[in-house]
Design brief:
By secondary structure, this protein is α+β, with helices and mostly antiparallel strands. It has three helices and six strands; from the N terminus they run αββααββββ. The protein has a six-stranded mixed beta sheet with strand order 4-3-2-1-6-5. A hairpin with a 7-residue loop joins β3 (about 75-80) and β4 (about 90-95). It is globular and about 40 Å long. It starts with a helix and ends in an 11-residue tail after the last strand.
Length: about 120
């Protein structure tokens, strides 16, 4: 269901939260990948300082959130929404937080305050 829903979202769509408040506009649509890489230390490697190096080397530009949340976003799919509600100017919406997609835009099933901000 959520993959079908997120595939109907396009950049520039208006986003409103569960209370009907305007959140912002869709900046990026990323469909989920159930096989998305989760960062783990390779077997037999001392995770001491090398894990941080591994995470740095595996880091991609999006989504700009902590690693555990990034892995969830990549697996489930997400929207990046430009908004004036966040200090950084953007929040991320997990695919399962999308209640509906209509011609009028995207309606969420959570209030804007529950959305993780870009780091």
């Amino acid at each position: 269901m959520s993959q079908e829903t997120i595939s109907r979202v396009t950049t520039g769509m208006r986003v409103v939260d569960s209370t009907g408040a305007e959140v912002g506009t869709v900046d990026l649509v990323q469909r989920g990948d159930p096989n998305a890489v989760t960062v783990q230390a390779p077997a037999g490697v001392d995770p001491g300082g090398s894990l941080d190096e591994l995470i740095e080397s595996a880091a991609v530009e999006e989504p700009d959130v902590p690693a555990d949340l990034a892995a969830r976003l990549l697996r489930t799919g997400y929207l990046k929404v430009s908004t004036e509600l966040a200090r950084t100017g953007a929040v991320y919406v997990l695919a399962d937080r999308i209640a509906a997609v209509t011609d009028g835009g995207v309606r969420l099933n959570v209030p804007a305050g529950a959305l993780p901000e870009e780091e």
